[in-house]
Amino acid sequence: MRYIDSDVNISTMIAIRVDGNSEIATGHIMRCLAVANGLRASRTECIFIVADDDSESLLVDSGFKIINLHSVWNDLDFEISKIITVIKDQKIDRLIVDTYFVTEKYFTALEKVCRVIYIDGINAFKCPVSVVINYNLYAKDIPYSTIYAGTKTRLLLGPKYAPLRSEFQNIRPHFRENVKKILITAGGVDTYNAAGKILCKVVNDDFFYGIEFHVIAGRLNSHIAELETISKKYPNVIIHKSVERMSELMCDCDIAVTAGGSTMYELCACGVPSICFSWADNQIPGVSVFTKTGLMIGAGDLRDDSDNCLKAVVDGLKMYCGEYEMRVRCGERLKSVVDGMGVGRICKILK
């Protein structure tokens, strides 16, 4: 195991177990950083525990202490003895876990030495933990109360617990009558080059003449060269590799196209009318509920039928462009779903 200390004097007993790489993307780490920064803002420090060097590299500039287990990111049972040693050595009494590769055995072992808070999203099994957090809109459709009846597990459910960075608080949406800027984001990895495929559909379409396309390319995006080639050819395509204030970029755009995940909740907080699609299994529930409730235009799953998905994206963009009142209504509905205060609520409970 390797320990990396930040410049901060660590005196906390809270730790976060999370991973991120080209397979599972960076969303888990981003939301955990939001919680960690929220804890720090409330004068409570925490440390990060990761499986390997890939995850460590995504956190090395965060300013938090990192403990690298040198374990296997998709086999958490393998690390049980290692992480228990860390918990005891660091005197951790609360551990936040954010990974889908947990097991009942893993949680049972950890709950014997500390309180475990699990950030859930798929409800794979009944987790023997102290707290379950599922901030997704579809959490209300999962019978958590029945599943955890008779247990001491505390349930924090729904978008009021969405762990967004502080920059997403107290945002006032604004709506231009004429669309000038469209945001495209397909996650930190974008395995299927969704952003590039969408750009290829719109850059030569006269309907979008004069509109800028702002594309977010995550650190692990393997298609950055293709995106930059398009950007060089079309001056109205702007690639953003490192965005310091995501909320400002979102608010500056009139419409967004997004893959499923935490980004949907960020767009809610900003009140940006959006089109959503999925390219991974864990994105499907979120895209489905946002589509069924009419909060966003759903374009389906890129893997099932790429042509139809891309067509739905383009059709949705054209609809929004031509319907100012629709954009206003949609943006206001989205804003009513997420107030950006989820981290504060989580931190209050953790403390």
Keywords:
2 domains, Rossmann fold, single chain, 36% helix, 14 strands, alpha/beta, 6-stranded parallel sheet, 8-stranded mixed sheet, 351 residues, 13 helices, 18% strand
What is the structure about, briefly put?
The protein is α/β, with parallel strands linked by helices and 351 residues long. Helix content is 36%, strand content 18%. The mean pLDDT is 94.
Question: Can you describe what's shown?
Answer:
Helices cover 36% and strands 18% of the residues. By secondary structure, the protein is of the alpha/beta class. The chain has 2 domains: 2-157, Rossmann fold (3-Layer(aba) Sandwich), CATH 3.40.50.11190; 168-337, Glycogen Phosphorylase B (Rossmann fold), CATH 3.40.50.2000. It is globular.
